[in-house]
Design goal:
Mean pLDDT: 82
Distance between the termini: 61 Å
Structural class: mainly beta
CATH class of the largest domain: Mainly Beta
Radius of gyration: 25 Å
Helix content: under 10%
Strand content: over 45%
Low-confidence stretches: none
Number of helices: 3
Number of domains: 3
CATH topology of the largest domain: Elongation Factor Tu (Ef-tu), domain 3
Number of strands: 22
Length: 377
């Protein structure tokens, strides 16, 4: 009788590549992927011949991740708490006498993990030391809640009030969701999280210098993220939002120089004795430098340009999608200088870009509003 191995009730997408069907004769196998919105994205049944007593599939991880990205919830980046991206994988094996079926809830993931979903206790991010400005709108931090029991999160703030340094902390307990959504969204922005959760513990006049978000399990601190409030002036800074390796919204503050270039792309044609510009396309391209970054920040930037969606905060129009065209990383070892990264990008919605740079008094009064689309072109 055929059987299915290496398949558990909760999995990351990368683990799906380890699924095997153990069989001695030809079997019919159905693979079905249903995303969390209830839509069947993939369903195929084929006959397979075992090799050395087993059947190994192709890249199921890539298939599952692509199916998840087809959901409407994944087509844009939201700066509010949203369910984690996942899909239901069903594998059904039929031999000459029986049918064996198993299913798993599979979470989006582009990385290979040492731990499965039910054993993850760390924050789902590359960075443990982060920079944050005083006026940043949102800073998502994701806590995995796929294990049994509860997880304790402690937020500790270091501040100065009346010339004296103080420290305040607040503790929250989150119950495991049994895999229903998988992650708990925590907004660690300044001052959204710190001012609201501290309440009376933090004076209105207090100046916050740094704060930490910690995970405790069985009385032991297992992970922490430290936020440093950037107070020095930077002539150029930009906030980027993207999806990390787990498909969750991530943010990063870039403090390097930015360069804008314009180029004209023209198709030429001849009319009698003259050349004519038949089609003109003006391209605005940007090169944003990250400033000096650590090795961990450089790894996180690699997730930025691999992200299926990337957004940047526009000074006047809020969050706007961008397309990352190229990235340039130069680092020499040994070196007394940290890493620096250049990201070359363009606005994705460039159809309105010339009109969107009006001053604040013009917002909402542009020639074409947000309903203007290419169908009018």
């Amino acid at each position: 009788m055929a059987s299915i191995s290496n398949m558990t009730s909760l999995m990351f997408a990368g683990e799906a590549n380890n699924i095997r069907v153990l069989a001695s004769d030809d079997v019919g196998i159905e693979i079905r992927v249903t995303t969390s919105d209830g839509i069947v994205r993939y369903d195929q049944t084929s006959t397979y011949t075992p090799v050395d007593g087993e059947i190994a599939f192709g890249d199921l991880a890539d298939l599952i991740n692509k199916c998840i990205l087809l959901q409407e919830d994944m087509s844009d980046i939201s700066l509010t708490s949203t369910p984690a991206p996942w899909a239901r994988l069903l594998v059904s094996v039929t031999d000459s006498s029986t049918t064996t079926t198993q299913s798993a809830k599979v979470f989006y993931c582009q990385a290979w993990n040492m731990a499965g979903p039910t054993t993850m206790t760390n924050f789902v991010t590359q960075l443990r030391k982060r920079k944050v400005t005083r006026d940043i709108a949102h800073f998502p931090v994701w806590l995995p809640l796929m294990n049994e029991g509860t997880t304790t999160v402690n937020v500790a703030v270091t501040y100065v009030s009346g010339g004296s340094e103080g420290r305040a902390s607040q503790t929250y307990t989150y119950a495991a969701t049994s895999g229903s959504e998988g992650y708990q969204y925590i907004d660690a922005a300044m001052p959204v999280l710190v001012r609201s959760i501290m309440g009376a513990l933090l004076y209105a006049s207090a100046t916050i210098y740094k704060y930490e978000v910690n995970i405790w399990a069985s009385g032991v601190m297992v992970d922490t993220i430290e936020f440093e409030v950037v107070r020095q002036y930077y002539p150029q800074q930009s906030t980027w939002y993207f999806r990390n390796a787990f498909g969750l919204v991530e943010t990063m503050l870039l403090l390097g120089r930015e360069e804008e270039t314009h180029s004209l792309d023209v198709d030429l044609g001849r009319s009698l004795f003259d050349y004519l510009a038949l089609d003109k396309d003006v391209v605005r391209e940007y090169a944003t430098n990250s400033g000096w970054v650590s090795k961990a920040e450089c790894r996180l930037l690699a997730e930025l340009y691999r992200s299926p969606q990337t957004c940047r905060v526009h000074e006047k129009l809020g969050l706007r999608k961008v397309v990352v065209k190229d990235i340039d990383v130069v680092h020499r070892s040994p070196s007394n200088e940290p890493r620096s990264v250049d990201i070359i990008w363009r606005w994705a919605d460039d159809r309105q870009e010339w009109l969107s740079d009006h001053d604040d008094a013009m917002l909402g009064h542009n020639v074409f509003d947000s309903t203007y689309t290419e169908v009018f072109d």
